User: What shape does this take?
Amino acid sequence: MEHLISPPGFGRRHFLSFWDLPDGGIETLLRRAEEFRLLRNLRESHATRPGRVLGMVFEKASTRTRASFEIAMFELGGHALYLGAQGSHLERGEPIRDTARVLSGYCHAIMIRTFAQQRAEELAAYANVPVINGLTDLLHPCQVLADLQTVAQRFGAHGGTHGSDIGRALQAVRYAWIGDGNNMANSWIEAAGILGLDLALACPPGHSPNADIVRRARATERGKITFCSDPIEAARGRHVLSTDVFASMGQEAEAEQRRGEFAGYCLDARLVAGADPAAIVLHCLPAHRGEEITDDVIEGPHSLVWRQAENRLHAQKALLESFL
Assistant: This one.
């Protein structure tokens, strides 16, 4: 393949949510992510960001986020610096604004995986380099970017994101979110409002997505965002069924109570049977099999969970290349 010279960056400072991208930014990233996937499969070099350094601040445990960002930087020709809460002065209460200013002098960008969205925003406010939201309790845009790439690969024209109108391909698909109205649900809602997606959400009472995020997404008057209490109704005829754990990191003490509140919201064969015959199942992992998703579904023919996980690497490369 030829496209070894990278496209210009977006000219925006940070990526804390999908709203930080310019118009068409999601589609641009998805096209580039697919190019990176093909380059990697062909074993072609794509070190478009040699010498760049990414500082990675982790205040939550991670498998896919750390691996995808670290390997992405390596394959782009750069380096990733891991900074965990344990073993750093973050554990001792050093203000995040101090960490921001120090890392800005060392790194070309910073990725943070943390709890409150305000913590990522404070890091961005004091950093002199781009800050990327690797996950907060409010949003997880990096994961949903990879999820959208997975959808485009399955349902896009020509069986992928390259050479096709990604926006129209994504709009032709009907989406369902089953389970907790958490950071993943919030980022799906943002994507729906920006891209004009038809998204149905089934969340138990008391576990709805963030109301401000829903209002902002609906204000675009693009697509359709609906809520229902019945998971079967939400899944009916849908092409994409997504879910996540019922108790996220930091909610471990609520796990037993949540299991009762989320009874009937498990993504199982019954829900898949009511979806479109060509439906795909997504889960951002790690999965608690038998709780939010059954083993036969995550291992079944509709599951694209492992491709979804791999796409974290390709989507992260596109994101890093654009912001570095």
Observations:
- Residues 1-8 have pLDDT under 50 and may be disordered.
- The radius of gyration is 19 Å.
- The longest strand covers residues 53-58.
